[in-house]
Amino acid sequence: MEDFKRTLKLQIIEALNLQGMQPEEIDDNAPLFGDGLGLDSIDSLELIVLLERNYGIKIEDPREGRKVFESIHVMADYIQANRKK
Amino acid sequence: MDLAEIMQVYFSAGMIKPIFIRTARAVSAQDSFNSNDLLQPVRSLTGNRFTYLEPNYQDYFTIMQLRRMSRITRLGLVTAIECLRDAGDIQPEAIITGTGKGSLTDTEKFIHAVREFGEGTLNPSPFIQSTYNSLNGLIGLHHHINSYNSTYVHSGFSLEHALLDAAIQLNEQSIRTALVGSFEEMTPEHYIIKDKLDFWKKEIDSPDAVMKSSPGAISGEGSFFFFLDYQQGAAPLQLVDLALLFEPGEGAVLRAMEGMLKQHGLGWDQLDIYLSGRNQDSRHDHYYEEVEHCLSATTHQLHFKHLSGEFDTAAGFGLWAAVRMAETNQLFPSMIRKQGSTPSMDYMLLYNQYYGKQHCIYLLKKT
């Protein structure tokens, strides 16, 4: 699971163009939106695209996405439970 | 002038009243940004491409801000920031830009994604940034300016349309100041596309290719911003007049220039500086040669495409150079092709054409 979280962080860094950021700098439990990483609604759409392309998970309702993207920990659990590829 | 020639005159001399250029900034293949000068000419040529020297973006933005900016929007924004800073951080009453292609990097990313993933799963960011007016939006957001904001995308007339829009509004005094600029980038993929259309010279990696007459030009890119004012103040340069011609016939450029000079009570021998967009493309250099034959021996002849490369808004380099030379009262030595005898720098004529189609004539006056 730790390896998967690291892979996921690398994918997020690339998808959101977080230049210069290292996976270690993203706390597994910190919120991705708001106070934590400071992501916004466009990032939410980018993460929905990331889940669909890399894991075959379709999130139709962006409100559901905000729950899934609460933290790296929550996101990794959700992907493992729902991934189609 | 017959009807066919009238149709070629896209915008004729005398249609605007003079406006003033207070500050100018340039990012180009030369070290023009940090010094706002042309002290040490360099040739950052890769193959037949000039690439601009990147400013240090981290002096301006955080990582979180930078990640939302494409290569060209971050460049344009930094150029605009410094241009406004030079003007005393006055909020302009209009932000008007021109670009031939906008953010090509993001356009290509978006098109590749459409091709790879169909129309279902597409990233929003490249789409947002590929729109031509994304830079204008960023400038407005960064400086909290919610006034008139527009971008013109008209190939070799793009910067000139931005200037005309500003000039008309400044002339009417519906605005008193305007930030006007241009931005252009070249990508490896777009370079190849244009190479297939014979835009570029064929001598690859030849250090002399840039100065040698042959079919094609050297590719370039850059961003140029100008702070315009309806009144003189401390502005070093005046944009006296501007004329645009589309695919002009034989002699039409000369007639337009002579008409412009006459309109302002000038003759060829009163031009102190001639700034030429000549790019050593043997297919279209005859337009420049016609003009050169008319110039007086007193006029200094300056070129800039061997420093900037060719692109839709390359005239911005010439206009930036004119502003800076007027302000410092010195010619840029690396631009001098033929030294004239006049000691004055009052009147300047800038002529640029883009692959024989869009021709722009600027009459400028040192204040």
TrEMBL record, chain A:
<dbReference type="InterPro" id="IPR009081">
    <property type="entry name" value="PP-bd_ACP"/>
</dbReference>
<dbReference type="Pfam" id="PF00550">
    <property type="entry name" value="PP-binding"/>
</dbReference>
<protein>
    <submittedName>
        <fullName>Phosphopantetheine-binding protein</fullName>
    </submittedName>
</protein>
<dbReference type="InterPro" id="IPR036736">
    <property type="entry name" value="ACP-like_sf"/>
</dbReference>
<feature type="domain" description="Carrier">
    <location>
        <begin position="2"/>
        <end position="83"/>
    </location>
</feature>
